[in-house]
Amino acid sequence: MSTAIERFDERARRRVGEHGRTVVYEGELLRHPVYTRVLHWSVATFFLLALLSGFAIYSPWLFHWLTPLFGGGPTTRLLHPWFSLAFVGVFALQFLNWLQPMTWGGDDSRWMRRLREYVSNTDTLEPEYVDFFNAGQKAYFWAIVGSAILFLISGIPMWFPRTFGQILVSISYVLHDLAAIVMLVGFIVHVYEGTGAQPGTFRSMTRGTVERRWAWTHHPAWYRKATGRDPRADHDEAVKKRS
Amino acid sequence: MPTGTLQIRQISGHTGPTPGAGMQREEEVCKYIDVTTCIGCKACEVACVEWNDMPFQQTTFDNTYQTMPSTAWNYWNLIKFDEHPQEDGTLKWLMRKDQCMHCEDPGCLRACPADGAIVQYTNGIVDFQQENCIGCQYCVSGCPFDIPKFNNNTKKVYKCTLCSDRVGQGLEPACIKSCPTGCLKFGTKADMRALADARARQLREHSGFPNAGVYDPPSVSGTHVIYVLHDITKPEMYGGLPATPRIPVSFTLWKRVAKPVALLLALFAAPVAFFHYIAEGPKESQPPEVPR
Q1: N-terminal to C-terminal alpha carbon distance within chain B
Q2: What share of chain B is helix, strand, coil (3-state, %, to 5)?
Q3: Contact A161 B114 (CB under 8 A)
Q4: Which residue of B147, B276, B286 is the best one to mutate when testing the A interface, meaning the one whose CB has the most A CBs within 10 A?
Q5: CA distance B276 to A61
Q6: How distant is the Cα of B143 from the closest Cα of chain A, in angstroms?
Q7: A178 exposed, middle or buried (CB, 10 Å; 0-12, 13-18, 19+)?
């Protein structure tokens, strides 16, 4: 990553920070600053617009009730590439913003091997090594990066079919749909994990803060870095206080 | 000649049966084009533009007699001129009337996601219904003959209708009516095919064209516009007529089978997440809050 890009991202981050704030109450930790939250919801908005307008073109049986949302078929087709470009643009900023915490490490491969235990809620506390993002979140991030690139490179020939020729467009058509399926599955899992599956997570993207006990439960290594305290000891103390 | 309302056989992007299918049997129609007797007068081009009420547009000169490089959204009928060098050093001057082929198995209709934007009538005519078109241009990529053309102002796609408005009223297409040499004919598919076969045999046996034949490509289950060619083994020399026109496989297999299956599998993630919540419950922050 060049320094020019870093500076660009830094400047945007500072500017957004000027216009917003995160109130951290006692017993809470700052999880996502204003810039990250604004980016996240911008990405989400354009994702949903692109998803719904894309669905309308994707499958005829979704056609009749989805196209009117965007002002009819031709307008849906007209808007879809622009929604998608906006999505790619905003997500590119999120990519720069999160590249460092999303970098895959040895601990992530370790985490992935116990995915079954994670899904079946076998352990109540996450392993000590889980940092700001766990490997599942990183996998989702990289799946979005991959499918967004696939979407972009296949979407451009579909946008201008006469320029790119029949063979390239018909290949793009399949690739575009594959990217859509990857992103759709990822998105559904992402929404579930961020809301119902882990109570206390959603507020990290709205108000920007989490409870301390959320942090030591789900991201102990990050808790240690953020507070300088031992996550397991604090947990045990809280359990003792409770009983 | 068919009369009365045209009966629809296939509708693009349409779920469920085709309304009124099979209520009335119609003869399949066909346009016969004898390339060997075409003189390149372009009367058919003018007739097409006139009947379909399209403004005449700027022509492009490219050292041939051709009006423009390819058909356009408002220019559906184009004589393609080719000077084909022969083995003996002489040139063969070829002219072929290029327009929609009205495939029996239309790639445009298969590719189209918009309900009712493309219909195929039981008489074989493939017709675009612009009021339902969304301008996605999948038909442009689905067509093996490069026929559908996009209008950037209306954001819709247009092509030859085989004068479905005239044919529905028992008239021949405008191009046929204007042809002075009789190289264009219009009638039932069976009759036109028989006529074409007879003409090709005549060319082979009496006119010194041993490779003469009829272009009615089986790779799209035949077309409702057929050509008699001097040399059926090299259709490409007639302005790039494909020897085996094919619909890209992704527009058929992928669209009809893989796409809906994959979409359902993808949406399956939602009930999986829901039942995970029901069966396993949430992962609470520890220690969980005690309900008061």
Answers
A1: 84
A2: 30, 20, 50
A3: no
A4: B286
A5: 28
A6: 8
A7: middle
Which residues on adjacent β-strands are paired with residue B121?
A: B8
For A239, which of B135, B146, B287 is closest by C-beta distance? B287
Bridge-based pairing state of the strands A28-30 and A209-211: antiparallel
How does DSSP classify residue B211? T
Which residue ranges form the domains of chain B, and what is each CATH number?
8-249 (3.30.70.20)
- Our CA angle for A169, A172, A173, nearest 5°, is 85
pTM, to two decimals: 0.85
Scanning the structure block, which residue is given the tokens 């690139």? A149
Residue B19 phi/psi, 5-degree rounding, is: -60, 135
Retrieve residue B136's tokens: 């996605």
Q: Give residues with Cβ within 8 angstroms of A95, minimum separation 6.
A: A145
How big is chain A, counted in residues?
A: 243
Exposed/middle/buried for A47, CB within 10 Å: 0-12, 13-18, 19+? Answer: buried
Domains and CATH numbers, chain A: 30-106+122-242 (1.20.950.20)
Q: DSSP states of A126-154 as a string?
A: --TT--SS-HHHHHHHHHHHHHHHHHHHH
List pLDDT tens digits, range B228-279: 999 999 999 999 999 999 998 888 778 877 788 888 888 899 999 999 999 9
Mean predicted lDDT score pLDDT of chain B: 91
Chain B residue with CA closest to A164: the answer is B141
Which ipTM value was assigned to this complex? 0.83
What share of chain A has pLDDT > 90, as a percent?
Answer: 74
- Give yes or no for a contact between B173 and B160, defined as CB atoms under 8 angstroms apart: no
DSSP SS3 for B146:
coil
